[in-house]
Design a protein that fits this description.
Blueprint (H helix, E strand, L loop, with lengths): L16 H12 L2 H13 L3 H29 L3 H8 L7 H34 L7 H13 L1 H20 L2 H28 L4 H9 L8 H14 L6 H6 L8 H29 L10 H11 L4 H35 L3 H20 L7 H10 L11 H28 L2 H9 L8 H23 L4
Helix pairs in contact: 1-8, 1-12, 1-14, 2-10, 2-12, 3-9, 3-10, 3-12, 3-17, 3-19, 4-5, 5-7, 5-14, 5-15, 5-17, 6-13, 7-8, 7-14, 7-15, 8-12, 8-14, 9-12, 10-17, 10-19, 12-13, 13-14, 14-15, 17-19
The protein binds 4-fluoro-L-phenylalanine.
The site of 4-fluoro-L-phenylalanine has 16 residues, from helix 1, helix 2, helix 5, helix 10 and helix 14.
Length: 467
């Protein structure tokens, strides 16, 4: 079936269930898995954080993933339209749909800046490489890039142009094709790097760090971060999976597909830790290096490794590919809403939304620059958001707001909507149609009705100090 025919009112459809799984897994697997998960695991002391994160994925993430795909597949609409068509006209339920669009808009604006660093590092690895640089020089190279507004803007623009280019191609010829080509390459690259890590001396220590829980390290901020990250990594809470589910044919097994996406995403995040931490420990570096973990620790290791140019080019190219398939899904949420709600052409919606997000990303690109207001200047203005702490720069403020607050709140609203607002009959039929896992319906509904809301609300109350 081509992009322009079929039942879905010319909206486009995946060519098969695997087309959907690859595209959705491509959206889920991204900087969150390879850059962010390892460094927040490092900052939070390893084991216990991973365990809490895995529990959140299973008990909260997976049920919401099924709920989102279900809403998308049954309505064949992007988030705003999907909420509207399952509730009554004029109902306030359109609000979580719009919140999702706003969240996608915000996340992509700074996501692209980090993807830009990966582009810069790929380029640098290929053309110069880290060989001959010592640890201080490599650390300084990252700080210099971070502070270099012009370079950040340049790479951000290049990355946004790539993302916009794919979205212009539409569902099958753009999004699905990109995922079909990029995802297998990404998996192979990751496995090759895992092979390198397994044979390094620090592997045993890394296994212990990632899998052995130390509950003395639990903090409220860490638990909120684990919750926020389980939404971020699975792309939940902003309608990305509603949007991708809307291009799924109604006969496909959505439960199996959601399970597959969740498993792929989780395994890849754990593998990323098992690539990064062995290398970190082997070279005597610190696991709590923060956002620089990937951009400082790895190059230090690569600089000392035989074939370092090859390995570092491979790794950073992998990071770019993972970021690209995710950025595509972020932009698609915004664009498809504009197409559906404002009856725009894909071309117009993509240029308008992509262009605006690119502009909104500029302050993020300048957030590391000492002369820029969006760096330290902004800290004073954002301090009220971080009670008891100092403020953050523009980039960190928006990352914190979108991933730790908007996504969990959006996910909570989606869960409440599907569990309590959608009619029983329609919900059960949508879950069981074409599914080998129909007998899990009751369990899923209980999780969505009680465990998800109680879990998310408890974490939020815990974080704001009410419990
Ligand atoms: N899941 C992506 C990652 O882990 O990098 C980020 C993301 C993509 C979040 C798409 C939300 C989204 F809708």
């Amino acid at each position: 079936m081509s992009d322009t025919d079929g039942a879905a009112e010319n909206r486009g459809q995946w060519s098969s269930r695997w087309g959907f799984i690859l595209a959705a897994a491509g959206g889920a697997v991204g900087l969150g898995n390879i850059w962010k998960f390892p460094y927040i695991t490092g900052e939070n002391g390893g084991g216990y954080f991973v365990l809490i994160y895995l529990l959140f994925i299973l008990l909260i993430g997976l049920p919401i993933m099924v709920a989102e795909v279900l809403v998308g597949r049954s309505t064949q609409k992007s988030p705003v339209g999907a909420f509207k068509s399952l509730s009554s006209p004029g109902s306030l339920w359109a609000v979580p749909g719009w919140l999702g669009v706003l969240t996608g808009f915000i996340i992509l604006s700074y996501y692209s800046v980090v993807a830009g660093w990966a582009l810069h590092y790929t380029w640098f690895s290929m053309t110069q490489g880290f060989a001959g640089m010592n640890a201080d020089e490599i650390g300084n190279a990252f700080s210099t890039l971070f502070a270099d507004g012009d370079a950040n803007i340049r790479w951000h623009l290049i990355f946004m142009v790539l993302t916009i280019g794919v979205i212009l191609g539409g569902i099958q010829k753009g999004v699905e094709r990109a995922a079909r080509i990029l995802m297998p390459i990404l998996l192979v690259m990751l496995l090759v790097l895992l092979g390198l890590a397994i044979t390094s001396d620090g592997f045993g220590q890394a296994l212990e760090f990632v899998f052995k829980p130390d509950f003395s390290k639990v903090t409220a901020a860490g638990v909120l971060e684990a919750l926020g990250h389980s939404f971020f990594t699975l792309s939940l809470g902003m309608g990305a999976m509603i949007t991708y589910g809307s291009y799924l044919k109604k006969k496909e097994d959505l439960v199996a597909a959601s399970g597959m996406i969740t498993i792929l995403d989780t395994v890849i995040a754990l593998v990323a830790c098992l690539v990064l931490f062995p290398i970190t420990f082997t070279f005597g570096l610190e696991p709590q290096a923060g956002p620089g973990l990937v951009f400082i620790n790895l190059p230090i290791a690569f600089s000392q490794l035989a074939g370092g140019v090859f390995w570092s080019t491979l790794f950073f190219a992998l990071l770019v590919l993972a970021a690209l398939t995710s950025a595509i899904s972020l932009l698609e949420v915004v664009v498809s809403t504009f197409i559906d709600e404002f009856k725009m052409s894909r071309l117009k919606a993509t240029l308008l939304c992509g262009g605006t997000i690119t502009l909104f990303g500029l302050p993020s690109a300048l957030s590391g620059s000492p002369e820029s207001y969006f760096g330290s200047g902004f800290k004073e203005h954002s301090a009220f958001l971080f009670e008891g702490e100092t403020g953050k720069n523009w980039f960190d403020t928006f990352d914190h707001l979108a991933s730790n607050w908007f996504l969990p709140i959006g996910g909570l609203l989606i869960a409440l909507f599907v569990a309590w607002r959608v009619g029983d009959k329609a919900r059960e039929e949508a879950f069981t149609t074409g599914s080998r896992f129909a007998r899990w319906y009751g369990l899923w509904l209980q999780l969505l009705r009680y465990v998800v809301p109680v879990g998310v609300i408890a974490v939020i109350l815990y974080k704001i100090g009410l419990i």
